[in-house]
Specification:
Low-confidence stretches: none
Largest sheet: 8 strands, mixed
Radius of gyration: 21 Å
Strand order of the largest sheet: 5-4-6-7-11-12-3-13
Strand content: 15-25%
Length: 455
């Protein structure tokens, strides 16, 4: 493949099949020959310099859209495949939060990610951190940056629920003199780990990888739809946007140039998921960001939600991840309470099932329809028939939701009405499907090249 056009190969085998995860790796590796252009289907790579031929095989090989072998990457990162295939390798599991009240309050959940990055900087264990910040000129979009100060890190403390091509930062990393931490989504992290495995020098500058739990992302059309439902016709009317403003679990907050402010509770804004969920969300098998040093998500449990303020679940996967969290707890930077794998899975059982069984069912549906799907090097041994039927129904609902007629229809229903109704329906659906979706989940077996592995 060294002598063929790698971008043409990528287009023909990934992008044209709707498999792009919008990670930006190809653009980051292309030496300025590719740009990521925002489209209705997420940011996509396009040639920046005419008909240039790109010969670097990493442009295709490191693409997570086609799939990267998780067993192979796990053996590279941790020296083994996970004992628990639902959560990934975990040396320690915690629920916790930053003890800095400002950091905790201004973060998406407990402020663990921001606090870890600030600690690494202050201890001179890194010289910069790759994070995401909202853009000043296009405040409805976000961009990757290398943060050099605690203030820079705090500017990126919020969640972003649209795809951001973080790995375009590889071009800047190449010129960066120093050690880095990297914060990314599962696909971005998998690509970075693959590059490290291939000894790609810029990726080796990354000494700590912090990952975010990622269930579903939405295309930027979701924000446009929300605006139009509130009689705002253009993204250009936005002055600032925060997806998780206020006290945990937070709410969408959009400040407009005319001074008006639009808000929606986090779970109310989710009414747009069936209409604008990204294809990569449906094809990802990694919810807990399994290839990191530390993975962090919301601690969704009634016990923590009742207390407010924000709690994070943190999975320390590598030895240095464990050492880092324990040192921070000893120095009273963070508060941590150890939890069991069962507790960690119970918090997110619905989404673990959506990824670890639902995604593989969606692969089978795509295959039956003559469509490509990614290959992650493993698959479930057997999924109950009832669970398959539920996923077929979900697949059909998402397929209908993305049709223009339904997207147009939802714009005419005020979010203040649709949001609460959707939340009630979401709760009822989870209650009705709970037994089937969780049945056998913890006992689910997986195989790599035909060899079964128990969770």
């Amino acid at each position: 493949m060294v002598y063929c056009d790698q971008f043409e190969y990528l287009k023909n085998n990934v992008i044209n099949h709707g498999l792009c995860t919008h990670c930006g790796t190809c653009a980051g590796l292309a030496g300025g020959a590719l740009n990521m252009i925002e489209t209705a289907s997420g940011p996509l790579p396009v040639l920046n310099r005419g008909n240039e031929t790109l010969k670097d095989p990493l442009i295709y090989d490191a693409c997570p859209g086609k799939g990267l072998s998780y067993p192979e990457l796990n053996r590279y990162v941790f020296g083994k495949t996970p004992e628990n295939m639902l959560l990934g390798t975990c040396r320690a599991l915690y629920v916790g939060y930053s003890r800095d009240r400002v950091i905790r309050k201004n973060s998406a959940s407990g402020g663990i990610v921001s606090q870890v990055l600030i600690y690494l900087l202050q201890q001179k264990m890194i010289d910069g951190a790759v994070i995401v910040q909202m853009c000043n000129d296009t405040p409805w979009l976000a961009r990757p940056v290398i943060a050099h100060t605690p203030a820079d890190i705090l500017d990126g403390g919020q969640s972003v629920y649209t795809p951001v091509p973080v790995n375009t930062i590889l071009a800047q990393i190449q010129a960066f003199d120093g050690r880095l931490a990297f914060v990314g989504t599962p696909d971005q992290v998998a690509s970075i780990r693959y590059l490290q495995m291939r000894r790609y020098e810029p990726a080796l500058k990354i000494k700590y990888i912090i990952g975010l739990y990622v269930g579903t992302l939405m295309y930027i059309g979701a924000v446009e739809s929300f605006l139009k439902s509130n009689r705002v016709q253009s993204l250009s009317e936005i002055r600032s946007l925060k997806y998780r403003d206020g006290e945990w679990p937070g709410y969408l907050k959009i400040e407009l140039k005319d001074g008006n402010v639009l808000t929606a509770k986090k779970f109310y804004y989710n009414y747009l998921i069936p209409f604008y969920i990204t294809q990569s969300s449906l094809l990802s098998v990694d919810f807990t960001n399994e290839l990191t040093d530390i993975s962090v998500g919301d601690a969704w449990s009634p016990r923590y939600i009742r207390q407010g303020m924000g709690f994070s679940v943190a999975a320390a996967r590598s030895e240095k991840g464990v050492e880092l969290l324990r040192a921070m707890q000893t120095e009273k930077c963070i508060e941590l309470s150890a939890i069991s794998p069962d507790h960690a899975m119970a918090m997110h059982a619905h989404m673990l099932d959506f990824k670890k069984r639902g995604a593989f069912i969606r692969f089978k549906i795509r295959k039956a329809l003559g469509m490509k799907h990614p290959d992650f090097g493993y698959s479930p041994v057997r999924i109950p028939k009832k669970r398959i039927l539920i996923e077929i129904l979900i697949y059909c609902l998402f397929a209908l939701g993305k049709r223009p007629v339904f997207r147009k229809l939802v714009q005419h229903i005020p979010p203040r009405i649709l949001g609460p109704k959707f939340d009630v329906l979401r709760y009822k659906w989870k209650s009705l499907s709970r037994r089937t979706k969780r049945s056998g989940l913890e006992q689910q077996r997986f195989k790599e090249q035909g060899i079964p592995h128990d969770p």
